[in-house]
């Protein structure tokens, strides 16, 4: 068993009275998260800064009492980190691999996160079944491919909040024509956690207007 790293001061300030839940989540990641192949052993010393806190800080993208779908949840990043930071949110974790969904369910039950639901499915398999004002994903695919999977899950006028690296502006510029055809009506790059992280987390925030996409498709067929 890998011992979990001690909680850093930044995480103490960020999680506040949810500190204990965050520490238990990190303990799961350092133990069964490694044995289940969800986290590499070399990642254990940097679980807080590189993974849990890095993901949790995007909680400020979501208004109070909203529903969020996390696509490709894997080790619960960002979905479980967000749910710990924001107990007011309803969070759906969508993950296709059985080993991972069993682990996610075990951790969710242990932490008592009763507003989190685990779904074993690919994103495409829950099109028309799940829908939410906000959908998020981390390190799943390039944004044009991710949008094809995620836009159908975003309720009209909602947003895909995609965690991205430093090349996010260039990736967004290159994909904008495709994203507009898929129904994107607006986009911006946002920074999160600048007060607790050495390097802020970046998200690509894409607003989805399905009716607009439908009209564009109709015009294109004329």
Please explain how this structure is put together.
The protein is an alpha/beta fold and 222 residues long. It has one domain: 3-Layer(aba) Sandwich (Rossmann fold). The protein contains nine helices and seven strands; from the N terminus they run ααααβαβαββαβαββα. It has helices at residues 9-15, 19-30, 32-35, 47-56, 79-85, 98-111, 143-150, 168-182, 210-221; strands at 67-71, 90-95, 116-120, 132-138, 154-164, 184-192, 201-208. Strands 3-2-1-4-5-7-6 form a seven-stranded mixed sheet, with helices on both faces. The radius of gyration is 17 Å and the shape is globular. The model is unreliable at 214-222 (pLDDT under 50).
By CATH, the superfamily comes out as Vaccinia Virus protein VP39
Oligomer: single chain
Strand content: 15-25%
Structural class category: alpha/beta
Q: Tally the helices: what do you get?
A: 9
Number of strands: 7
Order of helices and strands, N to C?
A: HHHHEHEHEEHEHEEH
pLDDT averaged residue by residue:
93
The end-to-end distance, rounded to whole angstroms, is 63 Å
**CATH class membership:** Alpha Beta
> Could you please say which CATH topology applies here?
Rossmann fold
- Largest sheet, order of strands side by side? 3-2-1-4-5-7-6
Number of domains: 1
**Spans of 5+ residues with little confidence (pLDDT < 50)?**
214-222
Helix content: 40-55%
